[in-house]
Structure formats: structure tokens, C-alpha cells
Amino acid sequence: MRSTLLALALLAALSNLLSAQERPVPKDSTRLSISGCARGRVFTVGRDPEHESTFVIELGTKVRLEGDKKVLADIKAHEGSMVEVTGLMKQSEVVRPGVGLAGGKVRITPVMPNGNGRPGMDPGPSPPVLDVESYRLLNASCPNR
Questions:
Q1: Beta strand pairing status for 99-101 and 29-39?
Q2: What is the pTM of this model?
Q3: In a domain, 44, yes or no
Q4: Which domain holds residue 115?
Q5: Is 22 in a helix, a strand, or coil?
Q6: Any domain includes 25
Q7: Which of 10, 63, 77, 108 is placed for a possible disulfide with 43 were both Cys, Cβ 3.0 to 4.6 Å?
Q8: Domain count of the chain?
Q9: Is residue 23 situated within a structural domain?
Q10: What is the pLDDT of residues 71-129, one digit of tens each?
Q11: Which phi and psi (to 5°) does residue 34 adopt?
Q12: Each residue's pLDDT tens digit, 4-54
């Protein structure tokens, strides 16, 4: 009787572990963990004070957060604190076109002319989108901007 209960408990723990696995990454996407500050659904990439890391996305880049409403509400509840978000982003959005200047705050990109030969009014590229899977709080507060 005891061994049956122990086997059932072990089986339940194993099934919970298997169901908590990360979802597979599509071929055109990549899984990222980036630190920064969120204000609503806009996330500004910042420097994690706890870890020295290489930056896949430039500092100061604005990223739009998408995903589960509960996770986004939890992130919004921690505005003012730095968080690290983990999620999926299209590979084409990870590397932004053009040349970055002034520490990533200014980006020079080519403009395609419109039909009359003059450059068209381009509102600029839309912000990259991160499909948030999880987050964790960092031991730092966001800089006031």
C-alpha cells in the first residue's frame, strides 16, 4: 500500500515537471532573456546590475510586450523595479536595420523613395515584439526618466 502511494506521488511530481517544459521555439524566432524596465506594455532594455552580459538588443531599445494577461499584469504591478523578461522574438526583429549612434539612442536607416522621387514620410520601424513567457524581479529600481 505504501509503495503504491509513493509511486503515485512520484508519478504526479514527474507529470508536473514534464508539463512545465518550455514550448518549442519556431524556426524564425529566438528565445531571449532581457533586463530592463516596463511601463505598461512598453519595455525599455536596460543594464542588469547583477550580471555582466552581452547585449543581443541594444540598451534603450523599446520593446512591446505581448503574452498571457496574468503575466503582463504581474509585470505592470512591478513598474519602477527592474525585471528580466524571457520570451520569444522573431529573429528579424532582434537585429535592427541601419547604423546605431549615440549609444543606441539614434539609428540611421535607409529610406526608400516614394513614387514622385522624393523620400517618403516614414514613421520609423515599429518596435520589436516579445511574446513573454516568464519574468523575474531584479534587485534594482528603474532610473527616473
A1: unpaired
A2: 0.65
A3: yes
A4: 31-141
A5: coil
A6: no
A7: 63
A8: 1
A9: no
A10: 999 999 999 899 999 999 988 777 666 666 666 566 676 666 665 656 555 566 678 89
A11: -130, 145
A12: 545 545 555 544 444 445 678 888 888 988 999 999 899 998 887 666 655
